[in-house]
Every structure is written in structure tokens, then in C-alpha cells.
Amino acid sequence: MGREATITYEQVAAAADAMKVAGSKPTSRAIRERLGNIGSMGTVNKLLQDWRAGQERRIANALVLPATLQRAILEFMDQELTGAKATLEAELAEQQQEAADLATENERQAGDIEDKAEAVTALQFDLANLQGRVAQMEVDLGAARLDGERERTAAEAARTELAKSLLRLEAMPRLEADLASLRLELNKERQGRVVAEQQAAVLGAKLEAALERSTKADASALDALAQARSNGEAVFLEVAKVEAAKNTIANLSGKLEAMQAQIERQAQDLDAARQSAKQVGGEAAGPGGKLAAAKPSTVKAPKA
To answer: How many angstroms separate the Cα of 150 from the Cα of each of 58, 154, 272, 278, 302?
Structure first.
């Protein structure tokens, strides 16, 4: 509601003089209507009372006359006052009506003030609620940022572990090549053992016929057999190592798959945290505000 326009004493006095010259009685309501309904009734009434006081002073100054003339005028005025009593009573009634109008307007303005005070109280309550919501949103945003930092730290650690696993996986072809080489050696040793066993069988068959020569031949055969057995045991040891390497590779593969699954879960949690932070930022900013939100880089789990 706009503030009412102000009026001056000169405006009220000019309007009252014009109404008096026109033969009408100046009242607060009539003057306010003449001035275009600007200003309040209380202001108009106060300025009109000042104008009337000025009129009475001018009349009193005009009454300074010679004594004989004053007596004649007083006698005339006594007669006129008696006749004007009714007029004064009418003016008094008008003043009372104006006072009643002022009281009505004051009551209306008091009601407006009470309504505005209630509106101000409601706005203050809404402002306090909004401030509380903004504070809570700031706390939630800070928590979301901390969660995002923790998620990023966890993702970095997971990427580091994944890089280590990838390095270990890169060594797998070399281990497989070594395994293949060991298998070839094992086959060669097996073939050698078969040949040695065959030679031992032949030597055993010829043992009786070449008893005198068997000492050296038997020693040679026994040495060859011992060497074959030693070679066989070495091959079996290498095979055991290869099997252990296989188990290690299988364990590493299982750990790598688990780490990839963990990284995917962490990436999903990070995306959820980003969405939550964006929603919180949107509520804190409101229709007329802007709230900046950090956009962490997307974490992609490397393919196995």
C-alpha cells in the first residue's frame, strides 16, 4: 500500500477561503474532497483548525475601535451572537461529526497497522525458517562434499591397486612362456628317462653274457639311471613350481575381478553423491540465486 500524499497549510487555507467566498462552510471532509482526497483526515482537520484560529485572530484585531463605536458594535454583536448561537451549535455538531470521522479513520488505520504488524511477524517467521533451511542445506552440502572427497580418495586407492594388479597381469605371459619351456624340458626329460630305462633293460639282458665287462657297464648304467632320476625329480619340482604359479595367477585374477567390482560400486556411489549434491545446491540457490557445485571427473573402471 502506497504512502498517502502530504498537503500543506497553504493548500488547506486556499481551499477554505475559496469555500468561504463561495458561501459554503469549510469542513475537513469538504476540503479533502476539494483537494482531490489527498492527505489524511487528521492532517486536514489540524490545518483547518489553524486556519480558523487565524480567522479568529483577524476578527479580534479588526475589533480595536473607539469606545462609542465599540459599544454600538457590541450591542449589535450581542444581537448577532444570539442569532448566531444556532449557527455555532450547528458548527459544533459538524465538529463532533468530524471528530467521529477522525476516530473511525484512526480505528481503520490502527486495524491496518495491526494487519501489517501480523504480516511482518509472519514474514519474520518465514525468514527464520528459510534461514534455518539454508543453514541445514549448507551443512548437507558440506557433508556431501566430504563424502565426495572420501569417494575420490577411495577411487584413487582402487585405481592404484588396479594398476599394481595390471602390472602383475602383464607378467603373466612371461610366466606362461616359462611354464611352456618347463613343459618342453619335462617332455625331453621324460623321453630321456624312457631311453635310459630302455638302455638299462638292454644292459640287464646282456649282464649275464658280459659279466666281466658288467662292472663298468653297470656303473655307467647306474650313473645314467641316477642322473635320469635326478633329472626327473628336478622336472617334477619345476612342474610343482609351475602349478604354484598357476594358483598364484588364479588368485590374482580373482582379486582383480573383486577390485573391478568394488571400483564399479564406488563409481555408482560417487554418481549418487554428485546427484545428491546437485539437488541440495538447487534448493539452496532458489529462483533468484546461483549455487556453484564441484563436478568431479567420471571414474571409469579399466576393462579386464
So the answer is: 91, 6, 14, 17, 20
* Dihedral, CA of residue 262, residue 266, residue 268 and residue 272, to nearest 10: 150
Of all residues in the chain, the percent with pLDDT exceeding 70 is 82
pTM of the model: 0.27
Helix axes 67-170, 41-62, angle to 10 degrees: 160
Q: Maximum Cα–Cα distance for the chain, whole Å? A: 197
Tens digit of pLDDT for each residue in 11-21?
A: 999 999 999 99
Whole-angstrom distance, CA of residue 285 vs CA of residue 134:
9
Distances (CA, A) of 93 to 31, 77, 90, 102: 17, 23, 5, 14
Q: Which residues contact 166 (CB under 8 A, 6 or more apart)?
A: 302
CA angle 56, 61, 66 (to 5 degrees): 135
Angle at 22 between CA 19 and CA 26, to 5 degrees: 25
Amino acid symbol at 164: K
Cβ-Cβ contacts under 8 Å for 262 (sequence gap 6 or more)? 158
